[in-house]
Amino acid sequence: MKTYAFLNVKGGVGKTTSATTIAHILATEYNKKVLLIDMDPQGNCSSLFSKKEINYAEVLERVLEEGDLSLLREYPKTIGDILIDSSFDINEVIYDTDYKNLSLIPAFIDLSDIETQLQSDIKNPQQFRLKHQLEKVKNNFDYCIIDCSPAVNLLNINGLACANYVFAPLKCDKWGFAGYCIAQSLVEALKDYNSQLTDIRCFLTQYDGRTIVSKSIRETMKKALGRFFIDVQIRKSVRAEEFTYSKMTLTDYAGDSSVAQDYRKLTKFLVEHY
Ligand SMILES: Nc1ncnc2c1ncn2[C@@H]1O[C@H](COP(=O)(O)OP(=O)(O)OP(=O)(O)O)[C@@H](O)[C@H]1O
Ligand SMILES: [Mg+2]
Questions:
Q1: Angle of helix 176-190 relative to helix 154-162, nearest 10 degrees?
Q2: Atom of ligand 1 minimally distant from the CA of 18
Q3: Chunked in runs of 10, what are the mean pLDDT values of the chain (274 residues)?
Q4: Which residue among 8, 17, 180, 266 is best mutated to probe the pocket of ligand 1, counting the most ligand atoms within 8 A of its Cβ?
Q5: Which CATH fold would you assign to the domain 2-273?
């Protein structure tokens, strides 16, 4: 099993769009067995692929009314359960999706609370909880794709500790490089835990080749990052915004769009090079 983590501490740069679209393309167009892990309390991957609809408003209302956070535990088991309890069977949190080769470990909003619990739970090394669990299922999948949250925290450290490669989508704007620098420093800090992690590979998202700004950002990144820059741009497209409302994957919603074609090209590049 090859593990790719999508990370950028900057929010809204295209981590989830990239992780979900690439996972879906690998499963449906490359016939690979894919495990997608949602490491973000926002649960964006989970709401796209989860067959079990969780009514978040209803859950929160009950928790607030009864003042009892443990009510959250009545809901389907998630990534949080395996991070908190190392005896928990990872197979219990691997769910089927509507796609034959694509499985999901979902996240729930309580993941941010679990992050706090993890910090204080020092009986086992906190950084390797996910890694130890994934060992048990590594022969069942060809790829594991991890969608990280926009933060420097123990959840992402757990994700990075398992990753063979880390990919940072950089939004094509003047803050893109700053996100890269912070993410790179996180990877630097983790090299002692994961000797396979050498550097982050980057690609540009929301690229508009008609503008001078986009073109010059690409040239600057190419020069600055050298071989760590993946020169496959994901173009800016209204389709990439629309599909998030559709409960469909990007390639199901707009398979012929420029942005879907770009993700196919990027997936091919990743399969061939990493
Ligand atoms: N190529 C694109 N063109 C236009 N809009 C895009 C593109 N890629 C992503 N978006 C939009 O940008 C927004 C953020 O994308 P996404 O959720 O993938 O980012 P993220 O990095 O995962 O965010 P977060 O840090 O909050 O998890 C979404 O509304 C998405 O539809
Ligand atoms: Mg996201």
A1: 70
A2: 18
A3: 95 96 98 97 90 68 80 78 92 94 90 84 84 96 97 92 95 82 84 83 95 93 92 97 92 97 98 96
A4: 17
A5: Rossmann fold (3.40.50)
Ligand 2 mean position, distance from CA 251 (Å): 18
Q: Which ligand has the minimum distance to the alpha carbon of residue 183?
A: 1
**Which residue is it, tokens 């099993």?**
1
Identify the sign of the CA torsion 57, 62, 67, 69.
negative
Q: In b/e form, how buried is each residue of 174-190, taking b as 16+ CB within 10 angstroms?
A: eebeebbeebbebbeeb
Q: Going along 172-240, which residue ranges are E strands?
A: 200-205
CA–CA separation, 121 and 6 (whole Å) = 26
Domain map (residue ranges) of the chain: 2-273
Task: Name every residue whose Cβ is closer than 8 Å to that of residue 94 and which is 6 or more positions away in sequence.
Answer: 35, 103, 104, 105, 137
Å from CA of 14 to ligand 2 middle = 7
The sheet with strand 102-105 has its strands ordered as 95-96, 102-105, 34-38, 143-147, 2-6, 165-171, 200-205
The ligand 1 atom at the shortest distance from the C-alpha of residue 169 is 21
First to last CA, the chain: 12
